[in-house]
Amino acid sequence: MAPANDIKAAKATYEGFINMIKVSTPIIALIVAFVVLIIQ
Question: What is the value of pTM for the model shown?
Fold first, then answer.
């Protein structure tokens, strides 16, 4: 089984990734909507 430090590091990395996804998804959606409006 993995040592506790490895679990803590993995959890921190995972939480950082999830937070990045939560922030970037709406931004990407706005960019896509803007581009679609420009193309029309």
Answer: 0.66
